[in-house]
């Protein structure tokens, strides 16, 4: 299983952003299938230019998410978020410094403002699910 440290190491090895984009797209190809029936407004991420759906499938003791998009690069960004957040307790999700990870991967320099906004909209939806799970515990 890929970890955040693996991501940082992989991004560090890749020489230019064309290679990193290809890597991100490849990560997205490995996402598990997202149920067609769940491609609805309940799971849609508002704030993304692309169509994005994000669904919690387990909440305790750790959270698991399924997600998908109609855009290849966004699917890769989803895969990065799944590496960061899947298998984490709600409290850990809420205390993860996503800005530090985002900066460590160099993404702030190479994502358009729209993609960046979409990335953080997905983060916000994940954190909202974590808050709900934490409040139910």
What is the rounded Rg? 14 Å
Strand content: 5-15%
Strand order of the largest sheet: 1-2
Which CATH architecture? Alpha-Beta Complex
Q: Spell the H/E element sequence.
A: HHEEHHHHH
Which structural class do the helices and strands define? mainly alpha
User: What's the quaternary structure here?
Assistant: single chain
Give the CA-based shape: globular
Give the rounded overall mean pLDDT. 93
Largest sheet data: 2 strands, antiparallel
Overall number of strands: 2
How many helices? Answer: 7
Low-pLDDT residue spans:
none
What does this entry look like structurally?
This protein has a single domain, classed as Sufe protein. Chain: A (Alpha-Beta Complex), CATH 3.90.1010. With 137 residues, it is mainly alpha-helical. The chain has helices spanning 4-13, 17-29, 72-85, 90-95, 98-104, 107-110, 113-136; strands spanning 52-58, 64-69. A two-stranded antiparallel sheet has the order 1-2. A hairpin with a 5-residue loop joins strand 1 and strand 2 (64-69).
Short descriptors:
137 residues; mainly alpha; two-stranded antiparallel ribbon
Describe the structure concisely.
The chain is mainly α and 137 residues long. It has 7 helices and 2 strands.
Task: Summarize the SSE layout with pairings.
Layout: H1 4-13, H2 17-29, E1 52-58, E2 64-69, H3 72-85, H4 90-95, H5 98-104, H6 107-110, H7 113-136
Antiparallel strand pairs: 1-2
Helix pairs in contact: 2-3, 3-7
């Amino acid at each position: 299983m890929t970890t955040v440290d693996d991501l940082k190491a992989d991004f560090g090895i890749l020489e230019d952003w064309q290679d990193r984009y290809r890597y991100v797209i490849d990560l997205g190809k490995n996402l598990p299938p997202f149920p067609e029936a769940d491609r609805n407004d309940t799971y849609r991420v508002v704030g993304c230019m692309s169509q994005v759906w994000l669904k919690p499938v387990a909440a305790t003791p750790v959270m698991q998410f399924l997600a998908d998009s109609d855009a290849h690069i966004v699917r890769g960004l989803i895969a990065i978020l799944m590496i960061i957040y899947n298998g984490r307790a709600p409290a850990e999700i809420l205390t993860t410094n996503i800005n530090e990870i985002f900066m460590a991967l160099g993404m702030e320099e190479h994502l358009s403002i729209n993609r960046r906004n979409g990335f953080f909209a997905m983060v916000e939806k994940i954190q909202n699910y974590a808050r709900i799970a934490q409040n139910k515990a």
